[in-house]
Amino acid sequence: MDSLITAAASALAAGDPLRALNCVALREDAPALALRGIAMAQLGDLPQAQHLLKRAARAFGPKQPLAHARCVVAQAEIAFVSRELSWPVKELATVQATLKQNGDALNAVHACHLQARRSLLLGQLDEAERLLGTVDPAPLPPIRRAAHEMILAGIAMQRLRTGPARAALTRAQEAAHLTRIPALKAEVAAAAQRLETPVARHITGDHERLILLADLEALLASGTLVVDACRRVVRRGKMVIPLASRPVLFALARALAEAWPNDVCRTDLLRAAFQAKRVDESHRARLRVEIGRLRQLLHPLADVQATPQGFALRPRNDVAVNVLAWPVEEEHGAVLAFLADGEAWSSSALALALGISQRTVQRSLDVLAEEGKVQWFGRARARRWTSSSVPGFTTIMLLPTLLPGG
């Protein structure tokens, strides 16, 4: 390896892409193309970075498997940062094995971390934990250790475990401080700030307040019956009744919970569940059917009793009833929650992460764009969507697709 390549690699490791480009900017050989690609990625020009890394991978070819594998790992990292979640993850597992066989343990760990980050973005928490379990963070250099702890913190936050998340972020801050890379320190600080940002509204009777993740964890552990409008479930302790696919039943449950311990008249329930402006006998008959279904589903946790005016929620064991809702109620809140991370998402990646069709995501994005809540750049398959400023909006931690244990 010549001195300019060595100097460029050292500059990139120190987080100085401009110094690296000064060394290799005019060269077209494979190592220089790879380093230029990584430098462009650090500068934020991801399309140019992908182009350079592909050229480098082709130039190295199968005769230099180690260098080729490193280029593939770099392409995967750019793809996931660009939220191209359909990038072939099997190829990443293959190059991870190649890196191990050729003695590049550090980049093999990096490949493992990339797979774990992708699983985390898709809400596959068990898979992300399994991948991290194969890595011993103790002997890693600070930059890799910080990445490891950041993924651990992300998993803990999505599982609503504030203590482990805070501990992991503290270790990530310590490791990031040792790297002296400003971008990494800022990324860790932004992640830590999520613990101090309201994630939900806590509604009890006529009172409501914004709560942090730690407050939410305490509420769910308190034994209170919670109607969770973020994840669309009814829960008490570890018992969870999902209603994400039953919007009418969830609307009835929420209306009853917000009125607890009082009852709700039939007219108000019909408005909440069916948006009925004029109530006729068919609506009343349907309400009786839906209440019967809700009573059957909620039987382990509560009863739905008929009253002279309507119906009332009666939790078992005389526990309190609370309601959780997002800080800002929004019809397309799930899409906004993913865009709240500040990254540029494609509609296909959003569809993959949300588990719904790309057409449904596209309709939501079109509506949000008309309302000025999202914006886009690029054309056709290269189009990416970012969030405009939506004050107080939560992130993906409380989506139905990311239930603890999922």
Assign the CATH architecture of the largest domain: Alpha Horseshoe
The percent range for helix content is 55-70%
- Cα radius of gyration in angstroms: 25 Å
**What is the residue-mean pLDDT, rounded to a whole number?**
85
Provide the low-confidence segments as ranges: 390-394, 402-406
Largest sheet: 6 strands, mixed
Q: What sequence of helices (H) and strands (E) makes up the elements?
A: HHHHHHHHHHHEEHEEEHEHHEEEHHHEE
CATH topology of the largest domain: Serine Threonine Protein Phosphatase 5, Tetratricopeptide repeat
Structural class: alpha+beta
Outline:
elongated
Strand content: 5-15%
Total beta strand runs: 11
Q: Give the number of domains.
A: 3
Give the neighbour order of strands across the main sheet: 2-1-9-3-4-5
Question: What is the C-level CATH assignment of the largest domain?
Answer: Mainly Alpha
C-alpha termini separation: 47 Å
Number of helices: 18
CATH evolutionary superfamily of the largest domain: Tetratricopeptide repeat domain
Organism: Prosthecobacter dejongeii
Protein name: HTH domain-containing protein
InterPro entries: WH-like_DNA-bd_sf (IPR036388), WH_DNA-bd_sf (IPR036390)
